[in-house]
Design goal:
321 residues, alpha+beta, C8orf32 fold, eight-stranded antiparallel sheet, five-stranded antiparallel sheet, 15 strands, 21% helix, 38% strand
Length: 321
């Protein structure tokens, strides 16, 4: 069973002191039979009390207030986690029975949310170009695996061509992007053939084969497979999710899984630094670091763009909105 140490730091530095910072954090790894959190140290500037609760999707969420004047807000999370390999689904049940099972749960909670299609005008084009109907001639497991492979092969992994505002339509036209783009397109395709699918945020840990996005925050998809449950699919790396992925949160899309977001009163002239390091049990360390500068004033915070889409992605999932 692999054991990882993950250090995730978010630091906001303000041009002049701000106050009344109200924040929500989703930095608590999932705890289940396949993922055990041995230790977590969470240190926040001002040492505010953190109220922890479960959200609608079962994610562990923390909220806190920092009312005093401050020129910096640092959220420092250190995690030690053990992951366990999970078996793949038994795909011997007749495909007709499995597809019938998926039709039977279409109106059930929680599957409704994970079948609802995101706004996407290109649905018809996607259906035509991918010949999506062919995927319903095999089992849901094989269909999900083939669509995962399709995204991996047909979309180029390129930083800087998309932003956090990029829609599924734009991703489809570009045929390129980064992990959240790959995940969003796969969500569209799976939901198109009535397979419930949800967005997952987390970390991908160091691998000798050099997986895309390793040692950093990462995004992938979970598809619901009849008689099995939620199966992780990583279209960025064309693989099933297993013991090299550490799960933080699930949702309909990335906005449900943002690690840090909130509001504050004061100038919007500030910089954001995000650093992630992941050490494998053998000591191999992978680091990811991004600095986002936001020099233009917006009253009481707001969304800012940056020329680098990767930085804009980090801004989106980490920023105080």
């Amino acid at each position: 069973m692999p054991q990882f140490k993950i250090h995730h730091v978010t630091r906001y530095t303000y041009e002049v002191p701000v106050r009344d910072s109200a924040n929500q954090i989703i930095l608590f790894p999932v705890k289940d039979e396949y993922q055990t959190v041995l230790k977590q140290d969470l240190v926040i500037t001002g040492e505010p009390a953190v109220d922890v609760y479960k959200d609608y999707y079962g994610n562990e969420v923390g909220s806190f207030m920092f009312t005093g004047a401050h020129s910096e807000l640092k959220i420092d999370s250190k995690i030690e986690v053990v992951t366990k390999s999970r078996p793949l689904p038994d795909d011997t049940i007749p495909k007709e029975e499995q597809w019938a099972g998926l039709q039977a749960i279409r109106s059930q909670v929680p599957f409704i949310d994970f079948l609802k299609q995101e706004s996407c005008e290109a649905v018809g084009e996607i259906k035509s170009d991918t010949q999506v109907g062919q995927y319903m001639q095999v089992t849901p497991l094989v269909a999900a695996q083939k669509l995962n492979e399709y995204v991996y092969k047909e979309f180029q992994y390129i930083q800087g061509v998309t932003s956090v505002e990029t829609t599924p339509d734009e991703i489809w036209k570009l045929k390129a992007g980064v992990c959240q783009d790959f995940a969003h397109i796969l969500l569209v395709m799976l939901r198109m053939i009535s397979i419930p699918a949800r967005y997952v945020s987390g970390y991908i840990c160091p691998n000798r084969n050099g997986m895309r996005g390793e040692g950093a925050t990462h995004a992938w998809v979970e598809a619901y497979i009849p008689n099995y449950g939620w199966l992780g699919l990583d279209p960025t790396n064309n693989c099933f999710v297993n013991d090299l992925h550490v799960r933080l949160a699930v949702g309909r899309n990335f906005s449900d899984c943002s690690p840090v977001k909130g509001t504050y009163k004061g100038t919007s002239n500030h910089s954001l630094e995000v650093g992630v390091s992941v050490s494998y049990e053998d000591g191999h360390v992978q680091d990811d670091h991004a600095t986002i500068l936001m020099p233009h004033p917006i009253t009481n915070g707001g969304n800012k763009s940056d020329d680098n889409s990767y930085r804009r992605y980090m801004e989106m999932i980490q920023q105080q909105q």
